[in-house]
Write a structure and sequence with these properties.
InterPro entries: DUF1697 (IPR012545). It contains six helices and six strands. By secondary structure, the chain is an alpha+beta fold. The chain folds into two domains: 48 residues, no CATH class; 94 residues. Helix 3 packs antiparallel against helix 6.
Length: 161
């Protein structure tokens, strides 16, 4: 991440850049729009770090605040909430509607404005994990990148520094 940050600091339109540990999360303040930033980051990842077809989700600070405030689950256990950001096309609402019957009170997900909020276990042998595994299969055609809710909040804190 240190080397990537150094390379991105050479981009003239980038005013400020922050990283959060080794998560692959970047906070970029720029004079350019998201499309230009995506091209710049993609070029650097491809040319300098040999990353083929990098997948990323890019949001403005206001969009990111909306994502956090739209969380449909109780925040008493934020590590149990996974926020899944689409890196290409998001899932259709109809996919969500057909999956609702498989959800339980302890393992469920919601699709809100293209963002998936998952609540429950993500691994193990319990039947609760079945919901996450089913959801995970959908990402083969609709790639997403996920972060637990604590990480999502910490990223906003960094952005507001």
């Amino acid at each position: 991440m240190k080397e990537l940050k150094e390379e991105l600091n050479n981009v003239k339109s980038i005013i400020k850049i922050e990283t959060y540990i080794q998560t692959g999360n970047l906070i970029i303040e720029s004079s350019e729009d998201k499309i230009i930033i995506r091209k710049e980051v993609t070029n650097i990842l491809s040319e300098k770090f040999n990353v083929k077809d990098p997948q990323m989700a890019i949001y403005t600070i206001e969009e990111y605040k909306d994502i956090i405030s739209s969380t449909p689950f109780e925040l008493s256990n934020p590590k149990s909430i996974l926020v899944l950001f689409p890196t290409q096309e998001t899932l259709e609402q109809s996919v969500y509607e057909t999956e609702k019957s498989e959800m339980t009170s302890t393992s469920k997900w919601e699709l809100i404005n293209g963002i998936i909020y998952y609540f429950g276990k993500q691994n193990g042998a319990s039947t609760e994990v079945k919901v996450f595994r089913t959801l995970n299969k959908k990402f083969k055609t609709n790639p997403h990148t996920g972060r637990n809710f604590n990480t999502v909040k910490k990223m906003l804190d960094l952005a507001n520094k």
